[in-house]
Fold each of these.
Amino acid sequence: MGNTDLVFTGTVTGVECTRRVPIPPSRPFLETFRANLKETFFPDDPLRQFKHEKCSRRLILGLQYFLPILQWAPTYSFNFFKSDLIAGITIASLAIPQGISYAKLANLPPILGLYSSFVPPLVYAMMGSSRDLAVGTVAVASLLIASMLGKEVSASKNPGLYLHLAFTATFFAGFFQAALGLLRLGFIVDFLSHATIVGFMGGAATVVCLQQLKGMLGLEHFTTATDLVSVMESVFSQTHQWRWESVVLGCSFLFFLLLTRFLSKRKPKFFWVSAAAPLTSVILGSLLVYLTHAENHGVQVIGYLKRGLNPPSATTLNFSSPYMMVALKTGIVTGIIALAEGIAVGRSFAMFKNYHIDGNKEMIAIGMMNIAGSLTSCYLTTGPFSRSAVNYNAGCKTAMSNVVMATAVMFTLLFLTPLFHYTPLVVLSSIIIAAMLGLIDYEAAIHLWQVDKVDFFVCLGAYLGVVFGSVEIGLVIAVAISILRVLLFVARPRTTVLGNIPNSMVYRRMDQYPVAQSVPGLFVLHIDAPIYFANASYLRERISRWIDEEEDKLKSKGETSLQYVILDLGAVSSIDTSGISMLEEVKKSVDRRGLQLVLANPGSEIMKKLDKSKVLETIGQEWIFLTVGEAVAACNFILHTCKPGAVTDSAGVDDNIV
């Protein structure tokens, strides 16, 4: 059986005993509560840097915590500025056409896309902790705003109210994001798993591409629904209104954009080719329309764009019923999606450059920039992956690249907006489709299928929900499946049989290690989760069934009958009163079978609660061991030297093993 025959020192009714598992000293409730609260909301211990510092120094550190620009600005160099200048101009060339395109996608005036690329980046440059995040509007949030607000207010029939609700939703989104960061509730965003985000983003990208068929085909009337069936019905019911001019122009620019992306991927040093392609498309498209007067032949153009900087919009926020609730709902949903994308993108690039960003500080920064944006005629912004990737590849060093981008957008607002009058909408549709195709990550979906089938179906559920239902339905399905999976893990924890690795004291899962051997007369069971009220009943029944199956197997093989049941509690990090009651019931059930219950490797919380509930006396502390190996050795020793049940703690237990 390997190295399991040990000699134990102690005086326990003729049998030597192993080391005792100690009961940890009790701690005051408030001290325990404070420690648990700290672990929940302050796992990174942000106040550590303030210890042993003078008041003036603490003030400076506090300002630097909320305004990271005060950390890097004093050491900012001209070499850094040159890199940030190049990166900022590069992302501005992408931000201008994307901003106009995404504003149209949200059914908002195109100029708002430029406004939203001016004020929010300046706020983030002061408060954000990521060096690589490039701030701006995103397609998915734009689609969500159009979808959720459009159900209550028509953007075409009541554009003023729709615009005011968009600002109000942005305010609520920013307030919600900042509140999550200040209250250290960032873990809520973690309920959007990687599989959920992949499926949701892929579905949203598909829906956005379908919506662009209106511009690509030159249609004037189009469905407001976002599901696949409604869009296809709208497209093919208007075949007589398709404009070949728009189709040719759109397909040509889409091919150009995809070609530049392909070249940039093949030759990473030419990243700027793909980054400049959208602005190049806008310029070429505008020149083509202007020279050929294509607007008179069915090609729709942007039209007049107001020159000037962002006008204030604080007085336009709508907090009155019945529209406040739809603005609140839209703000919370879009705020969570924007946070998930922005933080994920920031962490990805921080990992590449080997620095750390604080998720809660990022929430505060993103929230504050959206609050400021809602007061200055901007709608929801975050850190889109495409723009941030260009910023990273362009060699940015700090958040100053956002300031450079905002300056370029400011120059455009002051002097260049009339030049966009002849920009064809079909070019904007091509820019959006080209950007969205990159969000359909089929390789990640294949990887999920290969690694974890459940995660794949979470991803698939999110995708199908968005494509065949709506963006909201897809999000609800994805989050519901993810939460259901978490609940199933808690309510149905895994229990596995352990066996001995020959010539060792190691015990491992027998279904994973073919060489692992069972020990005659002993049954070792591993519980792989905390024990709570949600799974206590299941564990009681499952342990009983395991014992029944083991006894039936031994009877059928004519082997040594079962004498000991050893529960490995090493993975049970916590337990509640229902779990304690479950262990007591298992003890009684095992006793009725004429068997002995043994516990191995219980944690401090388990020992403390077993002691306070008096269940420790019921089980017997002499039947609780440090490791599975010691438990098996002791039981095996007793099994071969005396009758089971002869062990009592009448004379105490020594703490030494020979």
Note: Confidence is low (pLDDT under 50) at residues 1-18, 644-658.
Amino acid sequence: METLKAAIPESLKRAIGDSTVYDLRSTCSSLHSFFLHFDPFQQMITELADPKYALCGKSKDDASKSKQLGNQCFSNADYAKALECYTQALRKAPLDTGDMESNLVATLYVNRATVLHKMNLSVECLRDCTRALQICPSYAKAWYRRGKANASLGNYKSAICDLNVAKSVEPSMSGKRKIECELKILLDQCKSTSAVVQDKKYNCNAVGEMPQIKLQCVPMQDKGRSMVSSCVISPGSLVHAEEPYAMIILKQCRETHCHYCLNDLPADRVPCISCSIPLYCSHQCQIRAGGKMFRIHPENNGIFKNLPTDLGEYVAEVIQCNDSEEEIEDISEHKHECQGVNWPVVLPSEIVLAGRILARFLPNSCMLMASILLTQELSHCYKHMPAESKLDSHIFAIVLLNCLQHSCGTMFSIDGVSISQVVEIISQIKVNCMTVVRLKSIDTHGLSGHFGEFPFQSNTHLTSTVEQVRVGKAIYKAGSLFNHSCQPNIHAYFLSRTLYIRTTEVVAAGCQLELSYGPQVGLWDCKDRLNFLEDEYGFLCQCTGCSEVNLSDVVFNAFHCVNPNCSGAVLESRALDCEKHKIKHFPVTDNVDKNDDIYEVGLHVFKQNGASVHIRPGYCLKCGSYCDLEASHAAVDKALVCMKRLQDAILLKEISSIAISDALRSLHLLRLNLHAYNKLIAEAEDNIAQALCFAGELQLSMEHCKASVQILKKLYDTDDIVIAYELVKLSSIQLSLDDDTAVDSINQIDDIFSRYYGLHADLVFPYLQYLRGEKLNNFH
């Protein structure tokens, strides 16, 4: 890409950098004309889109090598490595390798099923056996292994059927005798334990909650369109649910999350049939993403002819794959990428997402309809994009159209008109794309042994933290109509591919429903929020958080007054400029309760007797004392270097008593120089709590965790979801200590999660069920 940029004439770069949406056709046409006669561009397109250069296709040789390595690992009882090798072999194995009786893919599924059974993953083992049988219904080893898996799960009726089919199709007498022995053992086990032969079901259906409140889309001055409530809405109400118009997994999650639903990949992940790029959590997701599956028609296979009727019906039910019967959408988002070519892997995720939007219309050669439909419904930020981004969007648009023409085999015009439409789509994606996030609980075990003056406790305790994992990007056309606020009144979350939006506070009739585009009060200070939103989305935020005084923005980066007994905040010029602007438009003395925390930090001095008070950087907002900010900065920087060392030690799990002692001294230094509510102190308290937890010093860890939570409650609302995430950590420490205050923490977590996620709370964050169970088991 840099080679292409360097070759573009400077005059054309300037024209693109200065262009508006009205100039796009001209600038796109000029750049396309240049590339048409530029050999390195043509070579790059060939390497990206020509199947001859494909690195992501199927390869029998590569699959066989991974299979052989998997066999070696299995022989050495290295089951985790064997599992990985067989999965990689499945990604590379062509489905048509071998006949129906010796199919490589079917063999790999059975090999992996054997590993999964060794790892006590019986449900996953069962699914892999079924996949093998859908390819080779007469595969005796697959039926046998399936019977063993069903027996492990207590599905005795199915296990007996599986073993009977295995015996029927097993060609060797020794094999038949082995299966007969297994059948006898299973039947004896059923009799001796009086086992119930009804099979267990392992399906977990999502809560089918749907929005009940009608919203209105109305024009708003300076904001375009916005969603508003038609009635008073109570907290925790589900107001919107929507499937994506287009979705893409982020590159860093390709090995860990399903490429269709973006859920965690199970151990028995399913590869794409035609290429080696995606992995799916099930055949259902694989079919929906690629639109293809390998089908066996039972009536064409001789296995059914010699079986009793009831056993034949059982076999047909197993190999027909129920989820393949579901209706498949006409547009499969991965189908046009599914040739093993390189461009879907190499190009940025946002560009591949643009390709998925365009591909919806390619079969009908109506590619421009994609842009027309989106332009009517979504805004874009082209005029606010920096020159470098405009140039990138031009180049990527031309590259993408050429790649799609190769991959889809559809001839369409690549010219100034079509390229400009793609540039607009790219700019629309930039401002309307939503990041799909998953909540993940990270469990931490205390270390065992001793070091320094900190004797480690037993390593049986377990503590947990909440991590938000970014897994994908998606376009939700209606979801994009919700505007931003740094103090949002709604919360967006995802279950599988579905976007849900829920209110977090009472919303009055006619009031805007606003969510956070990322930055919010408490997470970043005001200046950083404003800069980020202008750079990323092209607008100057004027929400209440950025235009009205709030405690969080005042204290976020504030310094401590030199008077140790004063609770006033000392601000630098950067923060003070933002707060002065707010004070100018929002008289604090007329709108804030005089018992409020905001008076404790001294903001009332901005307005006395109706006249503005002149406040300068470095002077306390409450008592007016001067603070040497240069000296305070030096002390804080020194402390932060030490805290960074502790963070690195936590990541490496190499925590020493010296590191903790140094961090405690640095925390004291931060408290002397920073305001008590400064976020850096909260972060330091949290890091020390984690380190002490690793060291087994849970009582001390709990105290520092509580201190961090108390500061965050000043920066955020006390019932903000961020507080719930921190309380998860605190409650897990309290549970490890058998501290009955864990009950209060868990109750707070439950209340906040119910407000933010409603009936979906347990699905979004299953760890909640564990916390409730521990509360019931330990505290009556």
Note: Confidence is low (pLDDT under 50) at residues 202-206, 323-327, 446-460.
Amino acid sequence: MALLPDLGTEIVIPVCAAIGIVFSLVQWFLVSRVKLSPERGGESPAKNGKNGYSDYLIEEEDGINDHGVVVKCAEIQSAISEGATSFLFTEYQYVGIFMIAFAILIFLFLGSVEGFSTKSQQCTFNKEKLCKPALATAIFSTVSFLLGAFTSVVSGFLGMKIATYANARTTLEARKGVGKAFITAFRSGAVMGFLLAANGLLVLYIAINIFKLYYGDDWEGLFEAITGYGLGGSSMALFGRVGGGIYTKAADVGADLVGKVERNIPEDDPRNPAVIADNVGDNVGDIAGMGSDLFGSYAESSCAALVVASISSFGMTHDFTAMCYPLLISSMGILVCLITTLFATDFFEIKAVKEIEPALKKQLIISTILMTVGIAIVTWTCLPSSFTIFNFGAQKVVKNWQLFLCVCVGLWAGLIIGFVTEYYTSNAYSPVQDVADSCRTGAATNVIFGLALGYKSVIIPIFAIAISIFVSFSFAAMYGIAVAALGMLSTIATGLAIDAYGPISDNAGGIAEMAGMSHRIRERTDALDAAGNTTAAIGKRYAVTFYLGFFTRLSECSFFKDLMLHLSFDSLNLFSGICHWIAALVSLALFGAFVSRASISTVDVLTPKVFIGLIVGAMLPYWFSAMTMKSVGSAALKMVEEVRRQFNTIPGLMEGHAKPDYATCVKISTDASIKEMIPPGALVMLTPLIVGIFFGVETLSGVLAGSLVSGVQIAISASNTGGAWDNAKKYIEAGASEHARTLGPKGSEPHKAAVIGDTIGDPLKDTSGPSLNILIKLMAVESLVFAPFFATHGGLLFKL
């Protein structure tokens, strides 16, 4: 028996979630103390203390309380916030229609499995027991789908509001020193991270307890219904990622091609008509889209683990504490991330630019070390010493220490993949420096070197995924792979804090440029932004976790992801590596649950039904990528034409005597993203339905396997290629080394070639790459939810 009683579990989980919410509100309060209004009097705000307050950190600007600068920052922030809010509301109107229509579809399909009967049915995995009727599964799956969709939307929207609330405040704090600006940006990211982690945990736990009032001890039926929660979260994340990615990259490409290459003006120059749309895009794509994406990963990995636990000894013996092991890991993660955050904001001070990179890296390392200890505590207090795990029709005996190792494998493998991603995308290392050097001979060689880097960067992560799969599955079958995914996601609060920090710092730099602040202020915000760009590549390990989840049951079948630009720590690229890793693990777990639920005994690749699905599934990521890339290109084309038009027709615009028409550019990005997000979304959502209904579950299993194997590798390659091109450009712009200075300065031919490479890479790393993570997750969880219908009524063409 577990040391922690069931009553203790019922207290610990909601209390930890509440602690996370309270901590996020405290961080919000601390950020709000930075006022977006001119300070009264001439008294300096300098204080002696930590985190940028010391005299040697402040280096105050002359006119630090200048009324005009503060007012201008507030106006720019307001414009960015209004643009982002307007876009998200427009997007959610379209997505809301889809959400309701798909919820009706779930109810009709699942309810028809037993002809909308209200009689109890034989359980799928325990034939001796009776489970709740299929109609109940249809109703509760529909409710959980709507709940997951709503929570995903709220997660993205809150993240956007937090980011737009903090960007100008970070800019104003940069006047006093890089330390204070770092604290403001990181605390703002922590607000998003802890809100999402705590809300996701709390809503899922409440849903389980409400459903339990009806299902009682029918754990199999309860957690089959709860899988709709993951489907709802990922469905909204798909549209958020694709729509937001098209928005931000259309604006970014338009602003860079005309502004930097043709007009030779700085990034975020207020004369550029696309500059506001570009800054809005950072929030709706990198913040709102990422928030929804990671919420979807968390919901899906939790559901996959709970489904397997329900048909193992935990469910058979009604051991509620052991059943909630995945949720207890997430609860411990909130406490660990809270302590980790204090290391960045309170325990240590940032004294200089060169300390930003180590501070962010320490967040990942400290959280991983502390979480290892936390996992050990949860494992030994919440699990019996020995238990059995469902293993494709049999029960596998597992020790608690083996499950501990499974979680740790996911936790540490994700960190390793993240740092490998950093090696390939940071300009501190030779791969990106070689890409930058290739710009000497023009954009063509830059593109060739960048593509080669992206392909090569896939090798180590795939080996790491393969080893993680083998170890986790050997110890605890598919449940081991599911909890390995949760191990990586356990530190999601810290990961999201780092991820959100990047776009906030990027916006802060844009606001500094547009407000006409001094070059010294822009250098500080650029240093923050450079640090933020590399950490995101490590963070994208979070999506690849989905791949392991998919392999859980696939493996059971017959066949088996000094200005810091010299030492750039790019949080977005770093975080992208983690996201791909999470997507891989979660996808494998869900695929395993689908194979079991659809009663597929063997997935034989030599069977024509499976093989045709495998080929088509491997093609889908290419089709999806083509659609998203072309969507960005079409929107960018309109943006480039509009920016050129304004420069050519508005007198005095280049001289700074006239104001550009920002609103038209914002409208172009909004209209294009709303229109273009529908076809890729329809491809992902309709494929499992069409294949399952007309070709059956065996062909669908092949489609899922094929899309996973090709999708995770394309996603890693695309993200790392784009990240490398981005940092090669920054390497030249910074001129922090003798080699970099021979390629610069800004406006030189090598720099222009680097800008073109960066422009090509933008839709790869910020639209297609991240969206592919959702493709492989969403298709798997959708197949799992509809598995009863496909197993009963699917394969119409083969029945003719």
Note: Strands lie at 121-122, 130-131, 386-391, 394-399.
